[in-house]
Predict the 3D structure of the following.
Amino acid sequence: MSWSSPYFTKDEMKCSHTGLEMMDPVFMEKLTALRADWGQPMVISSAYRDPTHPIEARKDKPGAHASGRAVDVLIAGEDAYNFLCAALGHGFTGIGVNQTGSWGSRFIHLDDLQDGDGFPRPNVWSY
């Protein structure tokens, strides 16, 4: 599976634990379209996570990041609200909101999983 994007690099999508990059090309098309419409840089704090990644390994089953169909975007405040509105128009079905803690660590999780993937979708949650 290969993808390319004028906005995102393979390096920023790699698992921080294993160094593997296994992002889903269809997901990356959606993310690239969102970035084009958003018109501003998107700082990715987490993308692909190998099932052996410590966060994934603690779970009963690997989550959306392990599928290569999820990212966490660092964003806060009014920008987070506007970004969330834009993301909903691009077919993202999993929205996680973390707007607590220091301003620079706040993020929005995006994924495009479906009910058949074993996760209830559409779904919005907070951390």
User: Anything to note?
Assistant: The helical segments are 25-38, 54-57, 77-88.
